[in-house]
Amino acid sequence: MPSPEETSAHQDRPVVRPTRQDEVAAAGSELIGGPVGRWARTGAGPLTPVRVMVLVAIGMFALGMVQKVPCYDWAWFRGASSQYTHACYSDIPHLYVGRGFADGLIPYADRLNGDMAYLEYPVLTGLFMQVAAWLTLTPDSDPMQQREQMYWMVNAGMLMVCAVVIVVCVARTHRNRPWDGLLVALAPAFALTATINWDLFAVALTAAAMLMWSRGRALAFGILIGLATAAKLYPVLLLGPLLVLCLRAGRLRDFSRALFGAVAAWLVVNVPVMLAAPEGWKKFYTFSQERQIDYGSFWLLITQRTGKPIDVSTVNTASVLLMIVLCAGIAGLALSARRRPRFAQLVFLVVAAFVLTNKVYSPQYVLWLIPLAALARPRWRDFLIWQACEVAYFLGIWMYLAYTTSGDKHQGLPQEGYQVAVVLHLLGTLYLCALVVRDILMSERDPVRRDGSDDPSGGVLDGAPDRVALAGSPRPSAGDREPVAGGGPVEWGAAGGPPAR
């Protein structure tokens, strides 16, 4: 009999040991003694899976900080090119001065010098930045370089806490698959991009929301999603897949709780700033609309290859339309698949669609997808292929910026090489999306469902029978479980509504 630590409390299933299911995990484990033995007690002793992953995450985060040492020591302060050739750029020290934190300006209320009239970040991220500025306890009389260094260190410490939260939440979301959190902890792009910007804060709130939903706490999920959306826009996208899955499972009451929590939390955070400093509050939204085509997007590839600029309003409209089409396709997939997709699968596809269609792809945006990829497709080979593409893009963007800022020296990567890096990023993300779609259409190939699980991250959706599905898709789809009393699923007719009874 498995020990209590080795059993899922929710589904009474043994804890999945990756070295027994994943060839890459088994090969990698040879570095630390080989795959786990048949009689090993993996839950015994002080080094539980979660504690091991926390230590690994802290170690990888520290390595990412070490990678920024050339910039910390001198490259941030000696011109643009050096921080690009060393691939150690970060927004954090530059915005400490550029957004008025060094001068004690109040975000959203005080106007800034230069083109950026107000802080262009959502309210909760602005608060995160301000708290870090309060904790930067260097005297004003110290050289600005030392103050910027301390501000970066304070932010790095706060972001490390966020990284630990993310790993713990991913490890606990799938109760019988705690080791999937190791994908996040060891992700090379995670370590390289963690301290470029403040995205980890929103990612941590989103990961905590996913954990709450997996425990059936719809209101807590909604509150955390509302807070995450107040820190970064992308978390609101999670409500779309949730609506479709709750519709198919007939759990719209749970979705309503989540939606109420999200709207209420977002309003509580935003309304005070909206009323006190309306011009500063709306800067993030106007900036997002007015921002030109930027690095990393396929829109930039088009303009560079054709030599013809595209009007920003045209790109905004086209991006929205593309996103609507892709989301409609994902919704159709969710409603017509033979077996209801897992929540994490749809969330990954929707956020990836947003990343792929957006007019900018900053290197740290990969942080949005890493926890979702670990939940949607926890296979080391595919995850590492995607990560290799993202690391290539990480190096490509800095080398290209080094090329464009080094004057006549042209040190770095020319435009054609940078375009290859962008294509690798796009293809890597599409590759992982294609595998997730295949897992949805062929659920027997889904690594999470190999042990008989249905949707460990689905909360109330886990094991629930279908109530609504497109005509032609077999039902029930939830792990071959019997439907509850009260009637079978509703089949939508050709006219678009439920058939008469």
UniProtKB/TrEMBL annotation:
Q: Where is this region: Disordered?
A: 447-501
Q: How does it sit in the membrane?
A: Multi-pass membrane protein
- Membrane-crossing residues? 48-66, 118-137, 149-171, 183-213, 219-246, 258-277, 318-336, 343-363, 383-405, 417-437
Q: Which domain of life does the UniProt lineage start with?
A: Bacteria
One Pfam family cited in the UniProt record for this chain: GT87
Alphabetized InterPro entries for the sequence: GT87, UCP010361
Give its localization: Cell membrane
Q: Does the keyword Membrane apply?
A: yes
Q: Please provide the record's keywords in A-Z order.
A: Cell membrane, Membrane, Transferase, Transmembrane, Transmembrane helix
Give yes or no: UniProt keyword Membrane.
Answer: yes
Q: Which residue ranges have biased composition labelled Gly residues?
A: 485-501
Q: What is its main location?
A: membrane
**Membership in a protein family:** Belongs to the glycosyltransferase 87 family.
For this entry, the protein name equals DUF2029 domain-containing protein
Look up and give the organism this protein is from: Streptomyces halstedii
